[in-house]
What does this fold into?
Amino acid sequence: METEINITNYPPLLQTFYQKPTLILAKSLLGCLLIKQTPEGTTAGVITETEAYLGPDDRAAHSFGNRRTKRTEIMFGEPGMTYTYSMHTHCLFNVVSGPVHRPEAVLIRSVEPFFNLDLISNRRQKVKTMQQWTNGPGKLTKAMGITMGDYGHQLDSPPLWIAPRLDADSFEIASGPRIGIDNAGEARDYPWRFWITGNQFISK
It folds into this structure.
């Protein structure tokens, strides 16, 4: 069975793609392909759900108030970089966004498995349904082999990249409050979570 993607068929988005306002980027990433190469093989998933975090002015963001730590340092750099962080036992994957020195990011919350489903399934053996393989930010990183070692990687080249969206304009986008940020004051109600309407691979 084929376990490698021909990169010429799924070329990375150019760095200029990420140079747009974070809320627009969060919607623009929907339908794009998230691809990860590992020694076990390559997996890919269609991005179905995202959350925007608007940095210094967003109480839910790690960089609220321009908080600059070892963890958030990458967020102050160029858009289109990988920001991974650990939460409990999970690694979560974010795309750095916003201008340099404006630490914003887009969390990838869910993907729909697209390539090498055998490997994805093997990594998620304890999960009963295909829908649960990747319908959450910690689930998709396990399924695709995305780790803390990907921190700081530029997303326009292997082993981790995002390719142009499939079937552009063939879906509607819904929005609502972000998830799991109950201690973020008024920011918990901002409608900055976006998802493909009707897609089954959504976290909530």
Observations:
- DSSP finds three helices and nine strands in the chain.
- The CA atoms of residues 103 and 184 lie 17 Å apart.
